[in-house]
Amino acid sequence: MHGTHLLLEEPIRMASILEPSKPNFFPAMTKIVGTLGPKSRSVQVISDCLNAGMSVGRFDFSWGDNEYHQQTLANLKSAIKTTKKLCAVMLDTVGPELQVVNKSEHSISLEAESFVVLTPDQDQEATSDLLPINFHGLSEAVKKGDTIFIGQYLFTGSETTSVWLEVSEVKGEDVVCVIKNSATLTGSLFTLHVAQIRIDLPTLTDKDKEVISTWGVRNNIDFLSLSYTRHAEDVRHARAFLSKLGDLQQTQILAKIENIEGLTHFDEILQEADGIILSRGNLGVDLPPEKVFLFQKAAIFKCNMACKPAVITRVVDSMTDNLRPTRAEATDVANAVLDGCDAILLGAETLRGQYPVETISIVGKICAEVSRPACHI
């Protein structure tokens, strides 16, 4: 062995890193789902999003009424005609989502170490001391010491726009909490998430059924994103409902895994669903941060083995307000694609972000770069 060189093949040619990125003849195999909303609903912006690489438009019914989303969809159809780019339509259900209701829409400032009461009395005004919620069973579901998170777009990780609370005591139907970090909540609705607690509400709510049977049928949706899927029965129930509607028998159901319950029943859910969405925002609350990647890798592998699409969310949060992703985010997207992820779902980044088109473009470039021949990985 003395004097001989052990030759190892480079997994990546270093020279290829210095080559400028080329527009691929074939687009990246990984699809990009863009959530359409306030910053991304004009014909021009949607056209730019399509040209940048968006191939599925997501309509999130957690906010906005049927008419609002119908106008956005009309703009999407106009953009499809002018760009000649195909784009599928995804309806995202609300599901058993707990929400804080802020009728006045005034900003609410919460101070660390102060107390705030969560009450099911929605007639009350939201203040720094009292937050009305849309659920009567919270006081029975939680106990002293439990953690509750509240945020407008569910925890970008910014300590100033989302807050975490610790349950101090339960008083009748009210839950008294200690505020653990100072934050300002803005808007009319905030998502509330209780770590590892079962919420006794149906996965497909009456509101969801109404939206699907009206807006969904009218627009012959391609995908139904089933929020908070917890059991295989949730998917079977949704499929039976779609079948009854007739027009939506071909609609594919993507089960959204958002909590411990869905994670526990993952294998049976995967058998029933047409694909899986890993909702890393909510999962990141239910799981310790160091466990999220383990579930992601295991889930993507299982989806690949079952030949069903795996979609991940919350990849470039920082691009909601910035023109470039962090290095960690860019690497995160690439690693997800290398693991076998089939689509990247952009939420706040395109819905309300300042740079929807640039976000889609950069995520698309990362996905394409992973597919280049230079990456012998």
UniProtKB/TrEMBL annotation:
Residues 30-360 form the Pyruvate kinase barrel domain. NCBIfam families: pyruv_kin (TIGR01064). Pathway: Carbohydrate degradation; glycolysis; pyruvate from D-glyceraldehyde 3-phosphate: step 5/5. Keywords: ATP-binding, Glycolysis, Kinase, Magnesium, Metal-binding, Nucleotide-binding, Pyruvate, Transferase. Its cofactor is K(+). Its EC number is 2.7.1.40. It holds the Pfam family PK. Belongs to the pyruvate kinase family. This is Pyruvate kinase. It catalyses: pyruvate + ATP = phosphoenolpyruvate + ADP + H(+).
